[in-house]
Amino acid sequence: MDRIVRIKEMLVSNPTDCFLRHALALEYIKAGDDASARLLFNDILSQFPDYIGSYYHLAKLLERQGEVDLAIKWYEQGMAAAKNAKDQHSYNELQGAYEDLIY
């Protein structure tokens, strides 16, 4: 069974599960559907700004689409969220990607 279909089936009983929604967005990226992934990442982060993993993947998607200024904004927001959560690993990952982009 297709992973996207399976994740969507699981989301029926738990539609706000960030882990499943994030996984679905990643599957959309693998399938070449960046538009659906972008919408889903934006939705996750608007509802749950402390779901730090989505910042990195949304910013990377925006980089691929040539939206550098917007990617920078999301990296910065992700670094702030990671700092607030005291998640040094995520902060370092976001900062590394951010610095690779701006320098």
Structure characterization notes:
- This protein has helices at residues 3-13, 18-30, 34-47, 53-64, 68-84, 88-102.
- Helix 1 packs antiparallel against helix 2, helix 3 runs antiparallel to helix 4 and helix 5 packs antiparallel against helix 6 (88-102).
- The chain is an all-alpha fold.
- It contains six helices and no strands.
- The protein has one domain (3-102): Tetratricopeptide repeat domain (Serine Threonine Protein Phosphatase 5, Tetratricopeptide repeat, Alpha Horseshoe).
Features:
103 residues, mainly alpha, 0% strand
Which CATH architecture would you pick? Answer: Alpha Horseshoe
Strand proportion: under 5%
Q: What would the average pLDDT be, to the nearest integer?
A: 97
Shape: globular
Number of domains: 1
The oligomeric state is single chain
Could you tell me the number of beta strands?
Answer: 0
- Unreliable stretches: none
The CATH superfamily is identified as: Tetratricopeptide repeat domain
Distance between the termini: 43 Å
In brief, what are we looking at here?
The protein is mostly helical and 103 residues long.
Tell me the layout of helices and strands.
Elements: H1 3-13, H2 18-30, H3 34-47, H4 53-64, H5 68-84, H6 88-102
